[in-house]
Amino acid sequence: MDHTPDISSVLINGEKETVWSAITNEDKLLQWYAPGSPWKIPNLKAGEKVTFTLMPSVHNNLTEEYPMTLTIEKIIPYQEFSLYLEAQQMLLSFTLDEEANGIRVTVNSEGFNQSLANLKALVEGKEIPYV
User: Fold this and answer.
1) Distance from C-alpha of 129 to C-alpha of 118, rounded to nearest angstrom
2) Secondary structure (3-state) at 38
3) Where is 8: in which H helix or E strand?
4) Are 54 and 84 in contact (CB under 8 A)?
5) Nearest Cα to 20, choosing from 115, 131, 97?
6) Is residue 3 predicted with pLDDT exceeding 70?
7) Where residue 68 falls among pLDDT bands split at 50, 70, 90?
8) In whole angstroms, what is the distance from residue 73 CA to residue 65 CA?
């Protein structure tokens, strides 16, 4: 495995369709990505606006809801889902690669290991470790 320091990745034992749904469906994102923080994805198309509302939790220093607007930059079904976060001027990209033992999900930034562990648990039908 490539241990490039500026990415986060996880190998998930599951089907690419299930993994894809977990990273692009607002109800599933609510369960693993900052659990309890809602997503609104009106249309799963490039150029569309998405809202993510980060809720206060033990993992952040927030005292109130923090809504963020993102723009879907790229969608290649079952391969890549990229969002541009205006506030931080950051592109967040999830890529899926089929491997012998499952689907590798890679995020183009470090610091997503807990979120990816949650995603793996959700897809594999296990308890979410970081809530």
Assistant:
1) 6
2) coil
3) strand 8-12
4) no
5) 97
6) no
7) very high
8) 25
**If you count them, how many residues does the chain have?**
131
Tokens standing for 70? 């993102």
**HEC letters along 43-112:** CCCCCCEEEEEECCCCCCCCCCCEEEEEEEEEEECCCEEEEEECCCCEEEEEEEEEECCEEEEEECCCCC
Burial 1-15, CB ≥16 within 10 A → b, else e: eeeeeeebbbbbebe
One-letter identity of residue 14: G
CA 86 to the chain's CA centroid: 17
Q: What is the CA radius of gyration of the chain?
A: 14
